Amino acid sequence: MTAxxxxxxxxxxxxxxxxxxxxxxxxVLATRGAFLLEEGRAFLVGRTVADEAELLTLAVPPxxxxxxxxxxxxxxxxxxxxxxxxxxxxxEVAEDNAAARxxxxxxxxxxxxxxxxxxxxxxxxxLMRRDLRPA
Length: 135
Known about the structure:
By secondary structure, the chain is α+β, with helices and mostly antiparallel strands. The chain has one domain (3-126): Gcn5-related N-acetyltransferase (GNAT) (Aminopeptidase). The chain is 32% helix and 36% strand. It contains 4 helices and 6 strands, in the order H-H-E-E-E-H-E-H-E-E. The chain has a 6-stranded mixed sheet. A hairpin with a 2-residue loop joins strand 1 and strand 2 (42-49).
């Protein structure tokens, strides 16, 4: 997908936090350790630095939700990050995004912090962590 396509999909997938622009996608994907995973019209952007990974955004358009796309992208992120040497991963999710929080918890992520008002006034970001090492 092009940066413009990513931005268009991000815009229909998110209101909070605000959608990323094409320029922001270009900038993030040009950074060291960044990677893009795609499945159909859904995508995930992540990055690895040393032994840590960060899930930067996961976008699934509303009409495609609840079909397993997000779960498959999340599992692919875990595998890609581990293959790049990451031992743990982090993400931030809007506190009011119950569906995403449930998905992350089901895939082994745990809440480790909270940033009040981070995404918008009254909407905190929850910080989540997952150990990537095989049990």
